[in-house]
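Dear colleague,

Thank you for sharing your sequence with our group. We've completed the structure prediction you requested, and as agreed, I am returning the results in plain text so they can be pasted directly into your records. Please verify that the sequence below matches your submission; if there's any discrepancy, let me know and we will rerun it promptly.
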Amino acid sequence: MNFRPRTGMEEPEINVISMVDIVLVLLLFFMVTTSFVQQSHLSMQLPKAQQASKGEPKTPIKIQLSASGQVALDGQSLPMAQLASRLKALAAQDPERVIILQADKNATQQYVIDVLDAAQAAGLTRISFATLTAAGR
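Please find the predicted structure tokens below.
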């Protein structure tokens, strides 16, 4: 047995090149498989409320109103002039449907009133305003 210390002994080192290769492959895999979903095409900030209703109707009509007055009906943008005719067509199918109005907190009252007038002209009177809860601050 040789118990003498070796003088030219190399220190062990960790080969990080293969670890970097594995990390890059994983990064590429996650980048390719991740899907990016955009909720809405309108930039909105909902107003906040202290108390909000917990339940949501079965088949709501969602109307989104931006601060600049752009309207989207169930995710599809349309001019304000066509909103009443589209709502009349939906009311003909089911007059008991509820409208959920998601209005930007900076939208003017006139835009909100225009949407409410279109809903009333269509015969839809059950309207709910979407807000953020106090926990969503």
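Summary note from our side: The radius of gyration is 29 Å.

Kind regards,
the structure core
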